[in-house]
Design brief:
alpha/beta; 14 helices; globular; two-stranded antiparallel ribbon; eight-stranded parallel beta barrel; single chain
């Protein structure tokens, strides 16, 4: 099935008492203005998969996706049972994103070893797909093992997308999953990134148009560009101490900035890490500016081949959040 543009969003982060209800109400508002997708992060504080069940029950047509569940923190059997439950709540409206996550989350938060992420992803995907097909497991990999687990096959397929940045993870996503989720890449490598995905599809014997290409984007429709840049630096500088993100940043034309961020991160000097993220670097990744600028920038991504731009607003101001998401509602934004 060829994939076309989907209006997709990630609701503002909201924590503490009442946050679930406020988040669901925001998702309902997004559905009311035409959004087709909501993609929830699985980054602690609020459990994305629990929230997905509530969102599916309280929306009518939106697809609810997770971008992304770390493959290290839930076993394939737990994932399979969860996917089956969510698929039963709203058949055809749930999508699962899987990723390897980061050292900070896997080793820091969970006390696990981020061991051979490519292998973990490949083996998790293999076993999970068997489980969702209703097959009894008999799998012994180098990292993942499961024998004797079985559940009824899904009545309708659930799309599985893999978070990928490097070439090997991209090949796995394109050859074995339904799509790929990109994140935090500079605009300069957009065409190269899409070309790599399409080449991997051809190598796997698949039509490139059959691969859903999602990407997370940090966006703010605002006159206060400096404030939105500061929020981006605060939220995302730790990501670029991750070796995969750091190498990708360096190869995309920012080797000095990547080295400075890595060095500052090694001593947890986040002030210095943020300072290493120049305006040029921030603006190459984030989409910040007036409505027309932001729309044209996102249009560039979609025309290059990204089918599902998952928009997250870089502001804590409810008015900026509403303005940002309203600017990309289908009645306002044509790719």
């Amino acid at each position: 099935m060829a994939h076309t543009f989907r209006a997709a969003m990630t609701p503002p982060y909201d924590f503490g008492p009442g946050s679930v209800e406020r988040t669901v109400e925001f998702i309902q508002w997004a559905e009311s203005i035409g959004y087709q997708d909501v993609w929830l992060p699985d980054a602690g504080r609020i459990d994305a998969l629990t929230l997905a069940a509530i969102a599916l029950a309280r929306t009518e047509r939106m697809r609810v996706g997770i971008a992304v569940v770390p493959a290290f923190t839930r076993t394939p059997a737990v994932l399979a049972a969860t996917v089956a439950t969510l698929a039963d709540i709203a058949p055809g409206r749930f999508a699962l994103g899987l990723g390897s996550s980061s050292e900070a989350m896997i080793e820091g938060w969970h006390g696990l070893s981020l061991d051979r992420p490519l292998t973990r992803m490949r083996e998790t995907l293999t076993v999970l797909q068997q489980m969702l097909d209703g097959k009894k497991t008999d799998f012994t990999g180098s990292l993942v093992r499961s024998t004797g687990y079985q559940q009824p096959p899904l009545s309708r397929d659930v799309a599985i997308l893999l978070a990928a940045l490097g070439p090997k993870m991209t090949e796995l996503a394109v050859s074995s999953a339904d799509g790929i989720i990109l994140n935090l890449f500079p605009l300069q490598v957009l065409d190269e990134t899409i070309a790599q995905i399409r080449a991997a599809a051809h190598s796997a014997g698949r039509e490139p148009g059959d691969i859903e290409i999602g990407s997370r984007f940090q966006v703010a429709v605002t006159d206060n560009v400096d404030e939105a840049r500061a929020i981006f630096r605060f939220a995302f500088s730790p990501y670029f101490t991750n070796p995969v993100y750091n190498r990708h940043l360096a190869s995309a034309g920012y080797p000095e900035e990547a080295a400075a961020i890595l060095e500052a991160g090694s001593t947890r000097d986040w002030t210095r890490a943020r300072a290493a993220m120049t305006d040029d670097l921030v603006d190459s990744i984030a989409v910040i500016g007036d409505k027309e600028y932001c729309q044209e920038r996102v249009r560039t991504y979609v025309r290059a081949g990204i089918t599902t731009p998952m928009l997250f607003c870089l502001s804590f101001d409810p008015n900026v959040q509403r303005d940002t998401f309203a600017a990309f509602a289908p009645k306002e934004f044509q790719p």
